[in-house]
Amino acid sequence: MSRSIHGFERRARVAEAVASSGARGARRRKLNVMLWLPIAWIAFVFGCALSADWWPMPEPDYMDFLSQGAPPGTTGEVPIGAFESSEGLEHYVFWLGTDMMGRDIVSRLMFGARVSLTLGLLAPLIGLVIGGGLGMAAGYWRGMLEATAVGVTDTILAFPGIVLLLAIVFYLGGSLLNLTLALGFLTVPAFYRVARANTLTYAEREFVTAAKAMGASDVSILAREILPNVIMPMLVYALLIVALLIVVEGVLSFLGLSVPTAPSWGGMIAEGREYLDEHPRLCFVPAFVMFLTVLSFNLLGDRLRGLTDVRESNI
Amino acid sequence: MTARQFFSGVLGGAVLGTFLLVCAGANAEEPKRGGSITVGLETDLRGFDPIKARVLGNSAATVINVIQDRLFDVDEEGNLVAMLATGAEQEEGGTSWLITLRTDVTFHDGTPFNADAVVAHWTRILSPSYVGGIFLQPMEGIEKVDEFTVRFHLDHAWGPFAGSLATPIGFAPYIPSPRAVSDDTQNRHPVGTGPYMFKEWRSGDRFVVVANPNYWGDDGPHLDEITFRFLPDQQTRLASLQSGDIDVMWMDRGTTIRSAQKDDSLDEHDTLGNGSLIIFLLNGSKPPLDDLRVRQALSHAWDQTLAMKVFYRNTQTEITHPYGSLLDCGEAGYRAHDIEKAKQLLADYGQPVAFEMIHTTTPRGREVGQLMQQLFKRVGVTLNLKPVDQLQLRQRVFTNNYEMSGWRIGDIPDQGPQLFGLFHSKSGYNITKYRAAEMDALLEQQRLLTDAEARGELLCRIAETINRDAPILYAGGRRHYAFTRQRLKGLPALAYGLIRLGHAWVTDGK
Amino acid sequence: MAKFVTLKLLRLIGVVFAVSALTFVMVAMLPADIAYDIAGQDATPAQIEAIRAELGLDQNVLVRYGHWLMSLAQGDMGRSFRSDEPVLDAIWSRLPVTIELLVLSQVFALLLAIPAGVYCAYRAGSRFDRVLGSTGFGMISVPTFVLAIVLIYLFALRLEWLPATGYEPFSEGVWANLRTFVLPSLSIALVEWVPLMRTLRSDMIATLKEDFISMAKAKGLPAWRILTRHALRPSSFTLITILGLQIGGLIGGALIIETIFALPGIGRLLINAIYARDYMIVQGCILFIAVGYVVINFVVDMLYVALDPRIRTAGAGG
After folding, report:
1. Chain A partners of B389 at a C-beta cutoff of 8 Å?
2. A83 to B339: CB separation less than 8 angstroms, yes or no
3. Which one of C145, C203, C259, C278 makes the best mutation probe of the A interface by having the most chain A beta carbons within 10 Å?
4. Record: contact A256-B366, CB cut-off 8 A
5. DSSP per position, C197-229
6. Contacts of B among chains (3+ CB pairs under 8 A)
7. Nearest by CB to C84, which of B131, B188, B235?
8. What is the domain range of residue C295?
9. CB neighbours (10 Å) of residue A97?
10. Rounded CA separation B416/B164 (Å)
11. Cα–Cα dist C274/C272, whole Å
12. CA-to-CA distance for C167 and B206, rounded, in angstroms?
């Protein structure tokens, strides 16, 4: 876990190193397919998460005690939608089977997407806003502000994130909101670094000096001249963090720290691990879904970085 | 174990040795000398000083059992067998006991075993600093009579007294070297009189013992060395057992037990104990659980049969009382799964029922919570789940800051003191806050009874009262499982879930 | 330069202190304390209180932190509340596991990354290069714990070549020991080799355009010799930096890998200690991890400076 949290920073610097050495280029021709496929998958997952309530399927926590560990395609009698009484049972096909407690895998995957996407998208947003703002300010004004910010971020980075997460889960309870806030906080230093590094390069450029000479205020320079240039690399970077956070949710599930009351992909993988020998699908189906999603966000991030590079070179 | 049975069972050491040998000879081939084994334990150990380590878990009990001896042992039939003691005599109507000791025993560190060693140990055990003393309440003190005789003083005649000296669980029965204790080395370098001696303890990894060449007993040590490995993950342990890296392990997960049973190269050992691996506490001081009808409705909503299938894959069996193999109370008025009855009781109560259950964040804890939530939902009860970690769960239970929680009833020689602790209105351990004058009376009576049959009847009435008033729900009894490689022999039944290796030997020994 | 290094060092010491203080307060704030662990399930409230008083847990957090700092200054990291084991011993006995996992995983990663990176740079744009590039991209998207499960499924459950989990110390034989580390290290290496390979490839492409390579080619030296003898070394600076960063991240132990494979490393020690509220062990581990992380980062930063003097001025604040 501490590895994954340090991973934010590491990934940031690794990504910078890889990007700055100009690794891409050769594959840009295939751009379209590799751009639209991930977008399509992400849209699909989004659609599932949003519409999960409306599909004709049992609730993700409904246990069909007659179909425990049922293979894909098994039929069972379940209540569609909210469980009211034992009378309204309907014929239903478990397309991906059920887990060892008789719960529908399809339903759990769709509801699980909510946890993964909420954590994956909202937490980086927190990091992006706070870390990005701090980084730009530090990169622009430098001085004491920068020194303090560096000290704080260094401390966060050297601090094993797992302790913070445990503290929050134990103290405040492992709700989705708490986890999102905690993980968001842990992404701040990484965004801070990217924002600061980018701001540093732009702060010395002619158009900034020109704006200063024309008497523009610092805030307006930051907002009008620097932000538009810094925001793209930040967003691209955010996509990589999204991918990472979806993985972190899985790691937390393994430690029993993810959102315990809602189904989540990581939770499904962790639960399925006990039956790996007999029913490998319990583990591998959610793992594959998670992999596709992570891959999609990574591809999207990579492609978009390619696009922003093009834009920069055109300036 | 009653006093009467015990008297008839108290034997001299010599007679006893013969008895054991006969047993071994009747059951199996002659033990071979030599060789070594590796044992897979679930947790690292905390230490072996009763006051410093405080609690002797199952893993540590497996280890201490080969290093330190007790005054008495219990055989397969539950009869007392002399170990470091040679006899016990009841005095003054059972309010004191005279115990005579062996005269030919020395500790691994050369300290002689005598009355001083026993008195020093038991004085510490009966002091308030020892946590496990809660179930030893009737014991008041111990005194030295002569070099090899001690006398225990009791508050009142107490049936389970002799059993308490013999049980293989808990620190109390295991006599450590008084020198190791006073030098403060006992905790991390245990010294006893047992068949094996401490060699090495690498924390987080392993604990090694070697044969005691000067062991006083006849049957053991047969092995040169025993290595205890700490393998917290049950699947890891099973994999290590199957690959031959370890020779024996204890397990409690249904999936692992089922896959071990499929493996022909392993021998299964299972023993029915008592108590319950999981019970659910319904806090009688918190509404709506303070209403009898609600608790009764919940016990009808709960489906123990299903729980056995889901949690244990039927490796544990349903129970109606906590006495397991000790006593048969029949149905004891158990409230079986019955949705209609539950709904009726709830309708009678007339208000919507919603409350919170705390459970651990472990896979088992989550399973338990989710199943409970589903079952209650089917009778219209809303159960909110609140996952907490193990310590928080204990804190909330001990500080009465919970409504419903998972717990357990330990497997111990006599359930009397434990049930007294749980259900007597004046007990400091009454975590369900259950209060009933009738129960108090029953619990007080069973304490004083020494007649086995009459006491058994009383205990069954206690079980019936529990089922009637529903302060707890049961989730299966306690069948202990261990699996061994076929080369390992000489394992007695798993009393209290303990793998006892004092007499173990291997077929490929010399 | 000396001033820059001194300043940087001072700041890092400050960071370590801040981290240890934060941890102390945070862990002390966790609900329930070690008394509940020590006392077990059969204790009465009075006994729990007594244990708390005995361990000094009834004192103020800051007082306790002060005590801890004082004894630390005297070189004493305290003892585990739970097992009475000296903290240093506990860390020391877990260290070999963490270090072995760390070293082996990076060795595996380099074994994959260097040949692949060199060849891809040599044949940049070839089909092999493109296939490897895409494979790498796919692999970096596999969560480490998923990879671990896949490896367990394939090599332990289906093929039965390697143990699924568990740990054998060196004393049980080198092979017995290595067997238990193959899958855990591979789970890390198969993800981490990708950035290494990519960096090496791109730096190498740049190096191959340099004059001294053309000269070597003109001399008629064989390609493999040019690649390994002449081009590899100047192309591996960024590689080393990234390697350092990856190692820095692994200092705390790859907790999830240690958990899945049941390896008794530092990460497991830490998390078990947190679950048990064994404050002394937690503090010891955190101190160790923070110092390790900070030192590695310091080394990496110094490497940056050594490689690129421009950073010396620009990086004064960072």
Report:
1. 170
2. no
3. C145
4. yes
5. HHHHHHHHHHHHTSHHHHHHHHTT--HHHIIII
6. A, C
7. B188
8. 87-316
9. 19
10. 12
11. 5
12. 11
On whether both B295 and B260 belong to a single domain, the answer is no
Residue in B360, B377, B386 nearest the CB of A83: B377
* Helical (H) or strand (E) element with A79: strand A74-79
Supply the CATH number for residue B311's domain: 3.10.105.10
Q: From CA B197, how far away is CA A11, in angstroms rounded?
A: 52
Domain count, chain C: 1
Q: Is the dihedral of CA A274, A277, A278, A281 positive or negative?
A: positive
Let me know whether B283 and B227 are in one domain.
no
pTM flag (> 0.90): no
Domains and CATH numbers, chain A: 53-57+110-308 (1.10.3720.10), 67-103 (no CATH)
- Least Cα separation, residue B433 to chain A (angstroms): 26
- What counts of helices (H) and strands (E) characterise chain B? 17, 20
Indicate the residue of A260, A277, A278 with minimum beta-carbon distance to B366. A260
Beta bridge pairs of residue B96: B91, B153
Give the CATH number, domain containing residue C222: 1.10.3720.10
Kindly state whether residues B175 and B90 are assigned to the same domain: yes
Same domain, B107 and B246: yes
Q: Distance between CA atoms of B359 and A206, rounded to whole angstroms?
A: 62
Decide if B128 touches C, using CB distance below 8 A: yes
B55 touches chain C (CB under 8 A): yes
Query: Quick one: B250 and B313 in the same domain?
Result: no
Task: Please check whether residue B201 is in contact with residue B195, taking contact to mean a CB–CB distance below 8 angstroms.
Answer: no
How many domains does chain B contain in total? 2
Q: A–C: how many Cβ contacts below 8 A?
A: 186
Q: CB C36 to CB B128 under 8 A? A: no
Judged by CB atoms closer than 8 Å, whether chains meet at C83 and B47 is answered as yes
Which 3 state secondary structure label does DSSP give B100? strand
Same domain flag for B51 and B193? yes
Range of the domain at B498: 3-269+480-506
Question: What's the CATH number where B203 sits?
Answer: 3.40.190.10
What residues of C are in contact with residue A142 (Cβ under 8 Å)?
A: 317
Looking at chain B, how many residues does it have?
510
Residues B241 and B312 in one domain: no
* Contact call for C144 and A269, based on CB within 8 A: no
Q: Which of B215, B192, B11 is nearest to B113 (CA)?
A: B192
Per-residue pLDDT in tens (0 to 9) along chain B, 510 residues: 333 333 333 333 333 333 333 344 344 578 888 999 999 998 888 899 998 888 888 899 999 999 999 999 877 776 788 899 998 888 888 889 999 999 999 999 999 999 999 999 999 999 887 877 767 878 889 999 999 999 999 988 877 788 788 888 889 999 999 999 999 999 999 999 999 999 999 877 889 999 999 999 888 799 999 999 888 878 778 888 888 889 999 988 888 899 899 999 999 999 998 999 899 999 999 989 999 999 999 999 999 999 998 888 899 989 999 998 888 998 999 999 999 999 999 999 999 999 999 998 888 888 899 899 999 998 999 999 988 888 889 999 999 999 999 999 988 878 888 898 899 998 888 999 999 999 999 999 888 787 888 889 999 999 999 999 999 999 999 999 999 999 999 998 888 889 999 999 999 876
B341 and B370 housed in the same domain: yes
Strand order in the sheet with B354-360: B382-388, B354-360, B404-409, B276-282, B472-474
Question: Is residue C296, in this structure, part of any structural domain at all?
Answer: yes
Neighbours of C3 (CB within 10 A): 8
Helices first, then strands: H and E counts in chain A: 11, 2
Q: Which amino acid is at A221?
A: I
